[in-house]
Specification:
The chain is α+β, with helices and mostly antiparallel strands. Among the domains are: about 80-190, no CATH class; about 230-365, no CATH class. Helix content is about 60%, strand content about 10%. The chain is built from 12 helices and 5 strands. The protein has a 5-stranded antiparallel beta sheet, sandwiched between helices. It is rod-shaped and about 165 Å long. The termini are far apart.
Length: about 375
């Protein structure tokens, strides 16, 4: 006996075909026939086909939605995520999930060094050092702003840098297989403790010596000005006394400026030069002070007449000696003025090594 549908050989007692499941018994009273069975089988196959197609479409749609949602919500989604994870190391999942980095918040720039972000870390330490040494007024504001910004931004910045480094490694080792790239990323990335400690130790040492240097220099300058305040006061007093005697010694013109030089050898001798002007002509009066006593020497009002006599060849030996001494007064005044400016510049640049010995006084200070 064979199956009426597929032709497979069947045993006599079998009613259903083992191959196709067709019923080979007698028709019942309900009018069940082959055409109906075939129609039912076809419908069943069509239903299965539709269900499979529907499930496939739903699965593809679900995958598409999942990918889109992942791209939008997960900022760390990356085509080479396995390489990125190998590069970052065991903290990858924490950095991926948590936007705020507590270690960057607490350790600041030293955490950058620990994560092998050496350039960024060193630049941050330099900026911090400059503020500690020279801008202490804004130090507290700087510290608060820095810890907050680093805590919030570190993870995003770190992953951005790591992605760039992974891309660089992929290009550099383009001929290496995936397993080799994973090992390279693990070696180049991750963390490094000892270099971070060494760099941070050097930073602490530099800050310490900078603070000591600035503090010592500041104390030196304070002491310097305290020591020289008496010298300046004495010089100004001598200049005022000289100014008051200009009329007595018939020095022409009105006062314009004055200089004072302290003798480095004794610190009790002073040379005072008062500069006056009259009708666009400049005159200098010379005074010498010793043991708080000031003595008028001479002024340069005769210099023009002596130069005229010299030009005419009528100058005597005594007059030539006098002319030379008067010219020396002019030169001394100029030298003292230059030396005073040089000393002021050394003080300004904190390179002064000795007491200030030369002073210049403006007209307002003299006649005040």
């Amino acid at each position: 006996m064979r199956c009426k549908k597929c032709g497979k050989v069947m045993r006599k007692e079998e009613l259903f075909c083992e191959a196709c499941g067709y019923y080979n018994g007698e028709k019942d009273s309900s009018g069940w026939d082959d055409d109906q069975e075939k129609s039912i089988d076809d419908d069943y196959e069509d239903f299965n086909t539709k269900e499979e197609s529907k499930e496939t479409e739903e699965f593809e749609e679900f995958n598409l939605k999942s990918n889109n949602n992942g791209t939008k919500s997960n900022k760390f989604n990356y085509e080479n995520e396995d390489l990125l994870e190998a590069f970052i190391g065991e903290d990858y999942k924490a950095i991926k999930k948590i936007p705020f980095n507590i270690f960057a918040f607490l350790l600041n720039w030293s955490y950058f060094l620990y994560r092998k972000l050496y350039i960024t870390g060193i630049i941050g330490l330099i900026i911090t050092g400059v503020i500690i040494v020279y801008f202490k007024k804004i130090l507290l504001t700087y510290c608060i702003a820095t810890v907050l910004i680093l805590g919030v931004c570190f993870n995003f910045y770190y992953v951005f840098i790591c992605k760039r480094k992974v891309e660089h490694l992929k290009k550099k080792y383009a001929d290496t297989d995936k397993f080799g790239l994973l090992n390279i990323c693990e070696e180049k990335g991750g963390v490094s403790l000892w270099p971070a400690l060494i760099i941070y130790f050097l930073f602490i040492v530099a800050i310490f010596f900078s603070q000591v240097s600035v503090s010592i220099n500041r104390e030196h300058n304070t002491k310097f000005w305290q020591e020289n305040s008496d010298n300046k006061a004495t010089c100004l007093s001598l200049v005022k006394t000289s100014y008051d005697s200009l009329e007595e010694y018939k020095v022409p013109g009105t006062v314009d400026e004055a200089v004072c030089k302290i003798s480095k050898a004794s610190f009790v001798e002073y040379d005072v030069y008062v500069k006056t002007t009259k009708k666009d002509k400049v005159y200098y009066a010379y005074y010498h002070a010793e043991n708080n006593k000031i003595i008028y020497k001479r002024n340069t009002s005769e210099i023009n007449a002596l130069e005229t006599r010299k030009a005419n060849g009528k100058i005597t030996e005594e007059e030539q000696t006098l002319l030379n001494s008067l010219k020396q007064i002019e030169n001394n005044y100029s030298d003292i003025s230059k030396q005073s400016k040089a000393e002021d510049e050394l003080i300004r640049t904190k390179k002064n090594k000795s007491e200030k010995l030369n002073y210049v006084f403006e007209k307002e200070e003299i006649i005040r």
